[in-house]
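Reply to dn_fold:

You asked what the input looked like. This is it:
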Amino acid sequence: MEPEVFAKLATYPHVVVSWVGDDGYPVQTAAQFQVDVEKGEVRIGRRTGLALPTDREVNVIASHIRPQPGVGYDERRYLSFWGRLVAEGDEMVLRPSRAWGWDEEVTPFFEYVERSNKQAKRYLESLSEERGVAVKPRLSPLWTFLLATRLPFLTASIVPILLGTAVAANDGSFSLWLAILTLLGGAAIHIGLNVANDVFDAFSGADDANVNPTQYSGGSRVVQRGLVTLRQMSALSIGAYVVGITIGLYLVVTRGSLELLAIGAIGVALSVFYTAPPLRLVHHGLGELTTALGFGPIMVLGAYVVQAERLSVEAFVASIPVAILVALILYVNEIPDRYSDASVGKRTLPARMSRELVTQGFLMLALAAFAVVSVAAVVGVIPRPTLIALIALPLAFSVHKGIREHYTKPYDLMATMGQNVQLHLIVGLLLFSGYMVAVVADAVFDSPPGILT
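and this is what came back:
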């Protein structure tokens, strides 16, 4: 055992000695101790609340936490040693046979949990074998479904569908029933994509190799934690695709639009081959582009065509800002996963590019999204009220600052990733609101003021 381990133990004020009593119940007592780093020994004084045994294995643990009122704890660390005690004079000597420890300053809590996942699986497997029944982690069906499908991320599909519908409404075409069907179909395809992404990342080993998952990156983790099997995830993904495709075909038939059929087919193909072989687009550095196309022009134009039964240059232009910003969600979320992705050949942009290029690339693309809004609104391609989206510009700079400061710290970066999701949502809803202002102005005024059109 390395001397550094014993040197760390010497920094603690006391230890707790634990063992299993004759009645089968755990017993423990606090004790004073000294460490002989060179000999690799822990010398424990006999003045403890209970007599220390020499006829069985004991566990000696030293730990530290700092309470944070209203928050929890930090500065968590511990060292745990196992072995038999030997009586030597007034002391009991432990020459450990094995040791284990954790220091939150070295390994953040969430990474520690993830690295312990395989050990937890082995324990549950041995417990299942011992009891003769399967012992597995449990979570309520609702929470399991929310985690597996990652429903909160459906804003990425809701925003472009609302925007495409709003563009059509501004052109004089709107049906609430068709809008609802479009939202349901788009959401179903998005769920199918989310779940399929987890399935193929499990097969490739990308999620298993990731020890720094966050709320926004690293997949849903339901497979890694044993909450859902790969078979169940595959069935869920297929079921979601069936629902989405069925709704899409219904809309194609009822609207009689070949353009809608082409858009839907391209959208489904992009979502399936995002991680699925043989294309595996995200593995070849095309994930951001695929995401931009799928959740930008494909969904905005699809929603528009459902309402208006024709294509539109305006709808395409309106889709560009949300396309860029949704691609940036993926782009930033890939930063914590860059090493695990690269280890399995998943060549995302953050896995390929330098820190500086990734950081500055975000800012340039975000500014490009706002530039498109500005130019398109000023020249009249999209309604001028959509300029209201520019009020979200400071949020883009805030996200850029967060990336620059927390690039190498996945859990500190989480707040920035959350802001980045908000950036896409806020800009999308502001663009939608701008279109609604134009729609209302056209309904209220015989000749609306130029600023409202």
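The beta strands are 15-20, 26-31, 33-36, 41-45, 58-68, 72-83, 85-88, 91-94, 98-103.
Hope that clears it up.
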